[in-house]
Amino acid sequence: MIEIQNLYKAFSGLPVLTDVSLTIEDAKTFAVIGASGSGKSVLMKNVVGLMKPDRGTILVDGVDISTLSYGETRKLREQFGVLFQGGALFDSMNAFDNVAFPLRMITEMREPEIRKRVEECLETVHLPEAGSKMPSELSGGMQKRVALARAVALQPKYIFYDEPTSGLDPITSNAINELIKDLDARLGITGIVITHDMHSCLHIADRIGFLHEGNMHWVGTVDELHSATDETLLDFVKASEYRIGP
Amino acid sequence: MTYPFERKIESFFVEVGRYGLLLFQSFRSILEIGTYWKNLIIQMVRVGVDSLPIVALTAAFSGAVTTVQSVHQLISPLIPRSVIGGVVVPSMVLELAVVTTALVLAGRVGARIAAELGTMRVTEQVDALEVMGLNSVAYLVVPRVLAGVIMFPVLYAVACFVGITGGMIAGELGGHIPMQEFIEGGRQFFNASDVTFGLIKSVVAGFIITSVSCSKGYYTTGGAEGVGSSTTQAAVSSCVLVLLADYVLAIMLL
């Protein structure tokens, strides 16, 4: 379980997150929605330890990550997988080596075991034949799927999806949404989806948090979202629906 | 309100602080050999082996031009021709081999390092390494700096050899000085401590170029424009710092 308490983060004196408190339960998918620049990615980077909060506490399975040394933080990160917005595949390696990279660098697995695990991961994201392709030879959607295969390679407990459908066409977006939903359910992963795509969010998430003006303005289930009366939330949802609606 | 000059001063100290922090992290990570040894070999090939042709070419012409200019200035019935060798050899060993190699490599190696790391930073590949539980400094920075420190002395030795040979051939082909006399002059004025001095300078140059370029690339912000800016700054800063270090070392060691 991830618990965020009174998180505050500012850049050059300008606050981005002013007072964020949130609990993310295990084996559920939580979506953080909000406008561009509302601090969704900053929130994610604080939780995975890529940024340090100015104030507040982040507990991962009861451990306050701000008290950990760099070595302990690195150990903790092995529980995290992150699907970055642009995929963040290493462009000097082919898809197979990208997926194999964390296994070779972090685990003691032997090469035949690594090969088997990589093939499983590529199979999971429906790209069994893509191993020999370089990232530049893959489409945007395929890059995200390979990145997803790399994110699950170490069998993490938590996966963060940073704008998983941004820059993709609606059909590929749906395919990615299905894949995320399937992975979270089948592997029992706790998913944290950072998105402003309401369609994606409603499809994947069990619970949703709306980040607005530096605060977690609203938190609830998908059903509760449908019956929500909060004006600010409804404005955001309606604007998103107009954008993606027929 | 902050004025442009104050911003530049602030930005300078931020850069120096980041550079110091990156060096501290690099020294702290140097024992994580398992993380970077494969990368170290790759970087040694890129920094050293791949740079050989341009280093040899630059050194050959530096030696040849030094010979031709020395002939122009020193040939006189009162001065033995072997003096030409005595000018070219120490010039190459003490100064030209290191400085020309360093300036060429500041562009070739420094710019490449900054562009590679900068692109990795802006495309979140550095964050991806960290999230996997890897030490990105140990994986990216340490092997590049070590490769520079290890391979620059090798390139310096090659540059000395090729430069002196280039000068000797230019003297022979131009009909200014026979090879035998060139070698005699070179031997007469050769001082073994000059080689030590050159090697020290090459290690320092290798360290400056790779570490400054790593710092510029590692802390890149601002997308493609940021990568371009980091690359230019890496090449320019490396050149300036190498020349400054060359002067400081000359005062200290000669």
Task: Describe the overall structure.
- The complex is a heterodimer of chains A (246) and B (254).
- Chain A has 246 residues and is an alpha/beta fold.
- Chain A is 41% helix and 25% strand.
- Chain A has a six-stranded mixed beta sheet with strand order 6-7-8-3-9-10, sandwiched between helices.
- In chain A, a hairpin with a 2-residue loop joins strand 4 (55-60) and strand 5 (63-64).
- Chain A is globular, with a radius of gyration of 18 Å.
- Chain B has 254 residues and is an all-alpha fold.
- Chain B contains nine helices and no strands.
- Chain B has helices at 4-29, 33-47, 52-74, 83-122, 125-131, 136-173, 179-189, 192-218, 223-253.
- The model of chain B has no long low-confidence stretch (mean pLDDT 93).
- Chains A and B meet through helix 2, strand 6 and helix 3 of A and helix 5 of B.
Residue-averaged pLDDT of chain B? 93
Q: Given the C-alpha coordinates, what overall shape of chain B results? A: elongated
Largest interface, counted by CB within 8 Å of the partner chain's CB? A-B, 24 and 15 residues
Structural class of chain A: alpha/beta
**What share of residues are in beta strands of chain B?**
under 5%
Helix content of chain A: 40-55%
Largest pleated sheet of chain B: none
Oligomer: heterodimer
**Number of helical segments with 4 or more residues of chain A:** 9
Total DSSP helices of chain B:
9
Beta-strand segment tally of chain A: 10
Distance between the termini of chain A: 38 Å
Give the SSE string of chain B. Answer: HHHHHHHHH
Estimated radius of gyration of chain B: 21 Å
Report the count of strand segments of chain B: 0
Q: What summary fits the major beta sheet of chain A?
A: 6 strands, mixed
